[in-house]
Amino acid sequence: MANVTAYAAPQAKAPLELTTVPRRPVGEHDVLIEIAYAGICHSDIHQVNEDWGTAAFPMVPGHEIAGVVSEVGPGVTRYAVGDRVGVGCFVDSCRECVNCRAGEEQYCLGGMVGTYNGTGKDGEPTYGGYSTHIVVDENYVLGIPEGIGLDEAAPLLCAGITLYSPLKHWNAGPGKRVAIVGLGGLGHMGVKIAHALGAEVTVLSQSLAKREDGLKLGADHFHATGDPATFAKLAGSFDLIVNTVSANIDLNAYLGLLATDGTLVNVGAPEEPSPVAMFALIGGRKSLAGSMIGGIRETQEMLDFCAAHGLGAEIEVISGGQINEAYRRIQASDVRYRFVIDIATLTS
User: Cα separations (Å) of 344 from 156, 290, 300, 347?
Assistant: First the structure.
């Protein structure tokens, strides 16, 4: 087991520090990836802060990973040295349950193995993409098509698939009125993908500060939810609303924006429960739903779709030494729209 350079949080809520972590030897079906870029997801901050429960430390966050294959095991058939590849939010699953067999490994009944803050089948902790290398079973590696830079592709492995999956599942496309709540790391990809799918796209943001950005990204309309008149004006306007914010919002108010048979899908994960009035659902046969990333097959489909439509994340590339400042800026909503770490800077 070799050690690789990484940035890790030594304990909960602590600043990340330069360190080394072990990687397993390349096994029969393993791929060794030299990581080029790693996106910073808001969930990385939640995990480091233990907002979602007890976590394991030291923690190397990062599940938006893009790089190049540098070694393959003797049984690997999907990838070769030099291939452009990515790794998303999980690196293994039981492979046997009904969800895994259906290609929905993210809903593995035995529990998927997280790319970081997880435990592999070998009993060892998993460490994420804020590191120079990672070893992953070929079945959980994605191919990154030519035409997408590795830097702008990295956030697609979480932010991209998190929005692509519900938009596809609830049939966003021509004739569908889709609203994206929040124009951040997740929301900006939702706008791009929904527009590329052919839907009529509206951004619902707290203010009009990002209106110009939203329209450039592909939105047809942009409204400020901080204005109470917005909810009266847009009542019954949408077939599908995807809520990307990780703070509690008034779900009842947003349910009022749905047309009959409309669905409000939540992909953000607030720390506290959100109250819902049943009358907000009953009046209009509305649905309140959730969605979590996507399976390997669908994630590859998303990458191919983004390449075909020239879509990548809007990014700000940073060095390893800027990670802690990036965390502070994310919490202050000061990023447009995804920080991506240049992994070459970890050792320079």
Answer: 20, 36, 26, 6
Beta strands in the chain (DSSP E): 2-8, 17-23, 30-39, 65-72, 84-87, 90-92, 113-114, 133-137, 142-143, 177-181, 200-205, 221-224, 238-243, 258-266, 287-290, 315-318, 338-342
Q: Under a CB-based contact definition with an 8 Å cutoff, are residues 266 and 289 in contact?
A: yes
Rounded to 5°, the CA angle 87-91-93 comes to 140
| pLDDT tens-digit readout, 158-203 | 999 999 999 999 999 999 999 999 999 999 999 999 999 999 999 9
Tell me whether residue 162 is exposed, middle or buried, using C-beta atoms within 10 angstroms of its C-beta: 0 to 12, 13 to 18, 19 or more.
buried
335 three-class SS: coil
CB 254 within 8 A of CB 230: no
| Model confidence at 271: pLDDT above 80 | no
Q: Give the three-state DSSP class for 305.
A: helix
Collapsed DSSP state (helix, strand, coil) of residue 312:
coil
Residue 252 has pLDDT above 80, yes or no: yes
Rounded Cα distance, 323 and 141, in Å: 25
pLDDT (tens digit per residue) in 34-58: 999 999 999 999 999 998 889 999 9
- Residue whose tokens read 């990973």: 65
